[in-house]
Every structure is written in C-alpha cells, then in structure tokens.
C-alpha cells in the first residue's frame, strides 16, 4: 500500500500508541483486500457495543484506549444490550449492567455520538452521493451502498473504530466501482416485508460482494430494510444493484421453492411466547404505521418494540407511544431484538417476529425457537 508521509509517521508510532494501533489495523485490512491506499471518510458507524458480543476483553480494551483515543469524524454507535431507562424491569445480571455502562462511557469519552441504533440512515442526514463512510453494522452498510448512494465496505468492529480514530479507510472492494457476477430474478407475487427479508437472506448466501436483483417493482422503506437485514446475516455480500436489463452474467430465480427453503431454515416453531418487532429497529414511519394497525386492538401476549431513542422521543411527541403502550407494547430504546439479554432461553422458549435478521440471531445466539410471520399476520393472530 502507498501511504502518505503522515500515515507512515503514525504507523511508526510517532503520533502515539493509539494512532499506531489504528493505522496497523487499517494497513492490515488494506493489504488483505488489495487496497492501494487509504482514503478519507466522513462518517463511521461502530459495532462492538453490546457486552454480549465483545465481552470482558472488549470492555477492557475500550476502557484503556478511551484515556487517549478521540474520533476524527462523525461517529455513531450500534445498539447496546438494554434500555437504560427500564433495565430494572428486567432480570438483567448486575455484572452485565456494570460492564455495559462501562462500554457506553468509553465510547462517549472518545467522542462517539451515543445513538445506539442499527438504522443510522433513518435518524441522521445522509451525506452527498458517493461519500465514503465506514459502517460496521451489516444492514447499515448494505443500506448505505444500495439505497443511500454512499460507499462503504462491510467493516469489522475494529476496522470501523480505526477509521473513526484516523478518518481514513482502505480503498478497496465496494469503495471502488463494482460489477456483480450474479443476477437474482424475484419470482414471488404479492411479497410482504418477510418475503423481502428472505430474498435478502438468499442473496447474501449466493452473492459475492454485490448482487443484481430484478423483478422487484416499487418497495417501501420496511421492505428495503428487511432486504438489508436479511442479507447482512447470511454472508459477505454488501450491496444490491437493481438493473432489469442486466446481461452477460449468471441468472437465478428466487421462487417459492427457494423462499420455502429459507423459511424452513429459520422458522423452528409455530407459536411464540412473546412478540418482538424491530430488527433492524423501527423508524418513525414504521412506528406510525404500527400505531394505525393497532388502533382499537391489543396484543394478547407480551410484545417488545425496539426503536432508536431519537425515534421514541419523536413518537412520544406525536402521541404514538401512548397508543402503542395502550395496545400492550413495551417500547425499548438503545437496544435491539438481536443479542439482548432481555430475551433468553431461561425465560422464553420461542419468539414470534417478522424479522429475518431477528430470527437468525434469536435462533443462533439467544438460543430460542422462532416463529416467523409478516407484520400483518402478527396483527391478525396475536391481537384482539
């Protein structure tokens, strides 16, 4: 890789241990991905926040570097393990709470915006087209590349943090122009958000770094998010392209058979003890839509709704949260369906959700069974 004089200086440790460490991460990442240089970025979004995912080693690392490290660019943050406002309502281990708060404080100390959201593209202004960013959250990286006209690789927790500290990222892979070698033809009529999530999951499995999709028609925001969330869980693919006339590349169909294969892989039960909505977290439009769908109805069982704090505050001002709470929803901020200790196999056997991403993590990380349904079906079956 070709480095500038300033970058070489940092790599040699002449700008301190933190900058040396960060540049070592970026250079190693760049060499592994055939980058020829580092380029400036304008925004970093970090994962590695939930104590369930980074553990004691991660908490100690962040505590140590927070003494000296500071971010150079706008830096936002993924969800943590609980909503700080109501964690006392749940049986969360005191050690988990202590360690999670330490992680939160470390990130705030180094200058990270405590957004605790996996949907930064809905709660922050999107930069101009082709802006280089560094997003570690998988659905956010795919959304940035596919719908927001930004450029990012599917970053790791370490590479995104290094980019936040240096303001640089390796110029490789999806940061350059990319041509997919596979086109998927959508062959499902009347798709729901669950269908789009399964399409994304399928595309992530069969695609390389990017994949073309045809036959989609108009999609709403929920369907776009569902596709990104599904793709983010199943492989390294990190970009959708939408070209109905793509030629000269392999074509495969996403049909009823392929959809059933994905459904059967992730749906492990026909009934859930609780309902969860929000993986990725729900934005304001989805909160509004859910409020309308629940008018005059109430959940027959516990329903956890995950949304960013910024969205929850907007929803409260608009009167949405009162209506959702009347319908039996627990509205949680700062956390997400995935990997939260609020849902575990000690007190929940199965969860009903409309999220492919949520289903994947609930099954593989939380260890609970999953009942997959579209939102419309959930409202029909689980409310009265």
- The CATH architecture of the largest domain: 2-Layer Sandwich
Order of helices and strands: HHEEHEHHEHHEEHEHEEHEHEHHEEHEH
The N- to C-terminal Cα distance equals 62 Å
Number of helices: 15
Mean pLDDT, nearest integer? 95
- Order the strands across the largest sheet as they lie in space: 12-11-10-13-14
Number of domains: 3
Low-confidence stretches: none
Radius of gyration: 21 Å
Q: CATH topology of the largest domain, what is it called?
A: Aconitase, domain 3
Number of strands: 14
Principal-axis shape: globular
Determine the oligomeric state from the structure. single chain
**What CATH first level of the largest domain would be assigned?**
Alpha Beta
What percent of residues are in strands?
5-15%
The percentage helix is: 40-55%
Query: How would you classify the helix and strand content by structural class?
Result: alpha/beta
Taking the sheet with the most strands, its summary is:
5 strands, parallel
Domain Phosphomevalonate dehydratase large subunit-like: 1-380
Catalytic activity: (R)-5-phosphomevalonate = (2E)-3-methyl-5-phosphooxypent-2-enoate + H2O
GO molecular function, one term: lyase activity
Family: Belongs to the AcnX type II large subunit family.
